[in-house]
Write a structure and sequence with these properties.
Structural class: alpha+beta
CATH superfamily: RNA polymerase, RBP11-like subunit
CATH architecture: 2-Layer Sandwich
Oligomer: single chain
Helix content: 25-40%
Number of domains: 1
CATH topology: Gyrase A, domain 2
Distance between the termini: 21 Å
CATH class: Alpha Beta
Largest sheet: 4 strands, antiparallel
Number of helices: 2
Length: 81
């Protein structure tokens, strides 16, 4: 699976997931929803064989990519133990 930045503004980021399924995206969304700085997490899904799955993240303050990295790090720690 590969992640890539689709679009970024001052308070939002849309991240694409190449060859991903909901097994990873669902706990990532939960970790983002638990972050008090995250205002909105939206799963963007079109036809899975034609378009990559995407997550849109909106934050109150700071860089939305930091929220994504924090959520990803928490998943790594959870699944390593």
């Amino acid at each position: 699976m590969e992640t890539y930045l689709v679009e970024k503004t001052s308070d939002t980021a849309t991240i694409g997931f190449k060859d991903a399924n909901l097994t990873l995206i669902t706990p990532l969304m939960k970790a983002l929803e638990d972050d008090e700085n995250v205002v909105l997490v939206r799963y963007l899904d079109e036809h899975p064989e034609l378009v990559d799955r995407k997550l849109m993240i909106q934050v109150k303050d700071g860089d939305p990519m930091k929220a994504f990295e924090k959520a990803a790090d928490s998943l790594v720690k959870y699944f390593k133990s």
